[in-house]
Design brief:
Layout: E1 12-18, H1 21-28, E2 32-39, E3 42-49, E4 52-58, H2 63-73, E5 81-90, E6 99-107, E7 122-123, H3 126-139, E8 144-150, H4 158-168, E9 172-174, H5 177-186, E10 191-199, H6 218-227, H7 231-264, H8 266-272
Helix pairs in contact: 1-7, 2-5, 3-7
């Protein structure tokens, strides 16, 4: 396993996985972009900030797509560490844009698909997670650290989120982190989860967004919006929340990657003291 900080390495090489274009663009905003390309058929932005060389991948939504993407690209070249990033749903009271740093992540055992991901929790790398938490808490004292649970579907109601929180004691939920972590651990690459909250603990989503995850159900989703025009207002409100979560994600990576630069450039640290 490659160390996070090494006197022999002048540049940290990390892979950041996101699901949607919103999340992808939010991370990209923190970088000086060198190239936009595809790797193994996966959309990828290659960029840098300080001593960090970063590849940002857009996997698509869901555990199967996340796992397939990670399996396709992580073996192509060596990585110092892997980050699962993007948005998350809150499972504790907090604010939109709150940063969540995962300690462990697992697929919810109540609906586990053995073909998707291993059931045992994925423990996030302690050294990198600690540095991520220091950055997150410096940005926002309300940042959350703890257990993250992944699910193969979008949870749409506050009641479902409360029930999930009571059963798992997790601080946040997503759809991809458990699959990404499983692949990273199989390949012995250090792994962390850093996400920002885009929907609240007690918040109901305006429609069943699961309908838009499968092409055959798109018309059902459109029909649901047509039958309930007021949902458009709620969707616009959710868009504002996603923008706030995006800004928080960008800010985190700007500072986090600068901290990596300091760790790899002692002379620069000394000159700023």
């Amino acid at each position: 396993m490659r160390p996070f900080v090494s006197s022999e390495v002048s540049q940290v090489k990390l892979a950041i996985f996101t699901a949607t274009r919103w999340e992808y663009q939010a991370v990209q905003e923190a970088l000086t972009v060198d190239q936009t390309t595809t790797k193994a058929g996966v959309r990828c932005t290659i960029g840098h900030r300080g001593q960090a060389k970063v590849s940002v991948f857009q996997s698509g939504i869901g555990p199967q797509k996340a796992k397939a993407t990670a399996q396709s690209v992580l073996g192509l070249e060596p990585w110092d560490f892997v980050v699962s990033s993007g948005f998350a749903g809150a499972l504790v009271p907090c604010s939109i844009g709150t940063i969540v740093v995962g300690d462990e992540v697992v697929m919810d055992e109540a609906i586990i698909n053995a073909d998707t991901v291993e059931q045992s929790p994925i423990v996030c790398d302690d050294i990198i997670r600690t540095q991520a938490w220091q950055v997150a808490s410096s940005i926002d004292p309300g940042s959350q650290s703890g257990y993250v649970v992944s699910l193969p579907r979008i949870i749409g109601t506050g009641a479902e989120k409360k029930a999930l929180a009571a059963r798992t004691h997790a601080v946040a939920l997503d759809m991809e982190s458990a699959s990404l972590g499983s692949v990273a651990h199989t390949q012995q690459i250090p792994f962390i989860v850093v996400r920002t909250i885009s929907d609240l603990f007690d918040e109901d989503l305006p429609i069943d967004f699961n309908l838009f995850l499968h092409p055959g159900d798109w018309m059902k989703g459109v029909s649901m919006i047509v039958r309930n025009p007021s949902s458009l207002i709620q969707i616009l409100h959710l868009r504002k929340q996603m923008l706030e979560a995006s800004r928080s994600l960008t800010l985190f990576f700007q500072i986090f990657l600068d901290e990596i630069e300091q760790a790899h450039n002692p002379q620069k640290v000394a000159s700023t003291c």
